[in-house]
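Quick start: read one record
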Amino acid sequence: MIHIFIVNPYAGKKTFADDLREKLKNIDGLNYFVFNTRNAGYETELIDRVVRIFQGEKLRFYCCGGSGTMRNMLSGFDSLEDVEVAFFPCGLTNDFLKVFGEKEKLFYDIEELINGEVMEVDYIRTNHGIALNTLSTGLDAHCQTKMESYRVLTILGRQTPYSLSLLSGILFAKNNKYTITVDEETFEDVYTEVFFGNGFVLGGGLYFDYDANIQDGKFIYSFVKGVYGIKRIKTMLAIGAKNFKKVENILQKGMCSQVTIKKTDGTPFVVNHDGELVKDVTEVHAQVIRKGLHLVVPKGVIS
């Protein structure tokens, strides 16, 4: 087996890429190649090239970055049926791995991951690409857009762009009227946030459920009805604290296997796939592909 490491050198601390190479060099008998990404979205092109170069070989791919790196990597495969993928996290939040609870910490040991086993998990396929953890729009998409503008401010601290974008979202993100069909049921209302999750955490701190089953072929969905000002702040704090009862009058929650989202007036909007934005979208169709991804996990994760 050839182990292919796709490294986002801009994720994590500055020495992440060099530190990883040093660790790999010291693992006896490991047949591997390391490829650095150049910019956001380059992972997709890189995967396509690597698959063609090593055609006929048994490959295992490692996402060495954050949620967005993983999303872009998965989008590079023509098919995920025979692909093994591992997640070596170094992003800001690495939200998907939170579904593993205390066992999340095992993913941070690269040798444990290399010696891991395959677990079949769900992923989200849409008409605008793939997501592993979440599909969402509204306040969080506003925040992600602002983060792109604030990225230069990482010189003041890694959390600075995230904190400023969250503040901007709470204060200035617009509410929009959406028409949303989940399985056979349609909702039409003004919402601050529209969330669909294979996992249950968005942006490291917004929890839309207590747990998630990543093998049941279902989304968790949660729609936050339109709120502004102090009520919006209280709502986001309650969701961040997993105090759902406090905001149950403005939350619509449930589970489904497929969804269609559009703004009721037909105008374009922005969709967030695992921290990567898809802009100028007029309609989203998405479904959960049950156990469609062969995810490599450290031994001990699978009970």
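The helical segments are 16-25, 42-53, 67-74, 110-114, 139-150, 160-172, 229-240.
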